[in-house]
Amino acid sequence: MWRHQGRDDRRAERTSIRPDNSLVLLDVSRDDVGLYTCIQDNDAHEVINVVNVLH
Q1: How many C-beta neighbours within 10 Å does residue 51 have?
Q2: What is the pLDDT of residues 19-49, one digit of tens each?
Q3: Rg of the Cα atoms in the chain
Q4: How sure is the predictor about 9, in pLDDT bands with cuts at 50, 70 and 90?
Q5: What is the pLDDT of residue 12?
Q6: Integer CA distances (angstroms), 30 to 9, 39, 42, 53, in order
Q7: 3-state secondary structure of 43
């Protein structure tokens, strides 16, 4: 699951999630600046990755 600034990023018309779970931002604007967090978890562990997007 990807979050932008701590919120679910549901701008489907401007985002795409690839089969490897990487996030692609289309038509990037200043509204896209900020922290993107990818949270992956299962019964064994949780992995959190954070990316800071600067424009």
Answers
A1: 11
A2: 998 999 898 888 889 999 999 888 889 999 9
A3: 12
A4: low
A5: 67
A6: 15, 24, 34, 10
A7: coil
pTM of the model as a whole: 0.75
Q: Tell me 44's DSSP state.
A: S
Work out the number of other CB atoms within 10 angstroms of the CB of residue 2: 17
Q: Is 31 exposed, middle or buried (0-12, 13-18, 19+ CB in 10 A)?
A: exposed
Is there a contact between 16 and 24 (Cβ–Cβ < 8 Å)? yes
- Whether 34 and 52 have beta carbons less than 8 Å apart is answered as yes
CB 49 within 8 A of CB 20: no
Q: In 3D, which of 45, 41, 35 has the Cα closest to residue 21?
A: 41
Structure token pair of residue 49: 């990755």
